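SEVERITY: medium
COMPONENT: batch folding queue
REPORTER: lab tech (J.R.)

DESCRIPTION
The queue accepted two submissions in a row. Attaching both inputs and their returned structure tokens so the on-call engineer can compare them side by side.

ATTACHMENT 1
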Amino acid sequence: MNKQWIAAAAFTAVLGATLATPVLAASQEKCYGVAKAGQNDCKGNNHSCAGQGTKDMDKGEFKLVPAGTCTKLGGSMTAAM
């Protein structure tokens, strides 16, 4: 019984680390409205995974960009609902 519990706990830990939101580096920022379809980073309007955006420049999808460049790209630092 203990071996099964340990295996289940290890699996859960690995799965949790794999599905976690990527760590945002200090040199990057989330920029909404600049990702092309299928090139969004992580959670969006109607899904929870990267690469599942269906429209170009969807204001509810973000792409990680170098810090300080979002507005220059025509994006927003906040999601439009």
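ATTACHMENT 2
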Amino acid sequence: MDPALQEANRKVSCKGVPKPPADPDEPERSCDEYPYAASYDSHEGASRNLDYSCQFLNAKHNSKESSLKKAWQNSQRVLEEDAF
């Protein structure tokens, strides 16, 4: 997947959404966007479609979910420009 497009999707989806303040009793948070930053189709991805959402989640959980999603896509032979 095009790294520049992924970065553009992330910038749009998380732009203007304040990150929750750091709390020593809470895990670090990262912005999670939907549709996924790796979305390619013209109807997917925040940089191409304004119908998106984002939420700050536990950063470790968010990273793990992304790894599992990528492994699933590889196992199902989802190609770069496939719509989903």
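NOTES FROM REPORTER
DSSP finds two helices and two strands in the chain.
No errors were logged for either attachment.
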